[in-house]
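Final report, results section. Input specification for complex C-07:
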Amino acid sequence: EVQMLESGGGLVQPGGSLRLSCAGSGFTFKDFAMTWVRQAPGKGLEWVSVISGTGDPTYVADSVKGRFTISRDNSKNTVYLLMNSLRAEDTAVFYCAKGLWGSDYDAFDIWGPGTLVTV
Amino acid sequence: SYDLTQPPSVSVSPGQTATITCSGDTLGEKYVSWYQQKPGQSPVLVIYQDTSRPSGISERFSGSNSGNTATLTISGTQAMDEADYHCQTWVSSAVVFGGGTKLTVL
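Structure output:
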């Protein structure tokens, strides 16, 4: 079964840091782009960052640029989101999702259950 | 930055056709995906590349995209289709989501 599973969320003080992880299984991880998307309570989906299957290039939303960094370790089938200088407005459920292709980012077909980050 | 605009809510009677729109500048020149999200659950991809349905998604879901507007159509709407629907595209090195539309099946 193809699935994604996030971990690493929790309660953090403003200005603090957190690293989220997302493990993929049931598919050839290195062949697909990965993205992080967040959803604040009662709000819509907000894109955070995306990374190609090879790990380069990466793209990040303006709202988190300079604070959040996406990376991946294809040997561990895991994508990461390092979040620094966290603010109250970063409070959200963070989802990771698998892209349909390696370096195209117009669709994401497998989503994890999400991990809650509270600042 | 690029904006995608969706109506906040759409209502439909059971068995009727629901239409949800997503508007953006020259959106018809880009690929659009649609996601269904039920309360407390993760999003599910229901349409990609404007008109394609992933395996396992009901044929009642269809999509189109032309000009400045993409449309998700749900035919024979059922109570189980009640959910939030989000459109999404890729433009100017960014993934962009619409604000989401709450579909109510009355």
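Chain B has no helices and nine strands. Residues 21 and 71 of chain B are 5 Å apart (CA to CA). This concludes the modelling results for the funded period.
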